[in-house]
């Protein structure tokens, strides 16, 4: 197993730039299903409404699978009442999640230009990927020799030799009309302040790279659109690899993500044989508390589960839970 943390971080940023309303995006069912985390705004009008009322109003085939309210994480039922300051996680097919964001008035179309501060390895990988999909890319890098190198290997990008913390330089290089600002310097504090400055002077999608995981609760309170933690991403990939190895010897977890800053898990189970959870209407299953079945992938068709749906052999089932240690689909049932 070989993991490239810089490439992993660049690919995560690329996903966020394609769907700028999201704080974080995880994918399941070979890319057919997305779990997106986003921050509510008062103008969306969800505050004071139940989950059931919102789903009826929007008529979108997605599920609200988790709500963060301060330090609390809730797996909501239909009667749960939302507040304007909540952070929501939704799950659904790519088409349905895009429709959901369109209906609530949040941008779902990708941005088209990016101002990147810091010309390290992540910036190199990211710029290459962005240029392939038609972005205009500008990179501000302080080291002259690094600028020369980047100019050679990514000729389609504009490389600016300068201090990315120079406010006048940022404005000269178009911060006010940038679609996205990605802070990738070697200093966490500088990345945070750069994105906060961007918040004051633009409507850009703001992304900051942070390595000091110990301060993630403080950083989350700043209201920066997305924070990239390379250590978290690397740990997720290692965990997925371990789960895949276990899957070859009997465990049926296909994919596992630690979500909501590690306070919950999203799992994808492969249903290989009949059991107590198969061929039974979901409404009749005695599920554990704080657990929600979010999607059923049946031969490539993505089903948003309702009470009358059943799980069949051959399906993959995606769920979100605050329970730990689920290694088999039967573990979702109360003992």
Question: Could you give a short description of this structure?
Answer:
This protein is 29% helix and 26% strand.
Give an overview of the whole structure.
Helix 1 packs across helix 4 (121-132) and helix 1 packs across helix 9 (230-247). The protein has nine helices and 16 strands. The protein has three domains: 5-16 and 111-232, NAD(P)-binding Rossmann-like Domain (Rossmann fold), CATH 3.40.50; 19-103, Regulator of K+ conductance, C-terminal domain (Alpha-Beta Plaits), CATH 3.30.70.1450; 252-332, 2-Layer Sandwich (Alpha-Beta Plaits), CATH 3.30.70. The strands form three sheets. It has a six-stranded parallel sheet with strand order 8-7-6-9-10-11, with helices on both faces. It has a five-stranded antiparallel sheet with strand order 1-2-5-3-4. It has a five-stranded antiparallel sheet with strand order 12-13-16-14-15. With 335 residues, it is an alpha/beta fold. The protein has helices at 5-18, 51-58, 94-103, 121-132, 144-153, 167-172, 188-201, 216-220, 230-247, and strands at residues 24-28, 33-39, 63-69, 72-74, 87-93, 113-117, 136-141, 158-161, 180-183, 205-209, 226-228, 253-259, 264-270, 291-298, 301-303, 316-321. The protein is globular and about 65 Å long. Helices cover 29% and strands 26% of the residues. The mean pLDDT is 88.
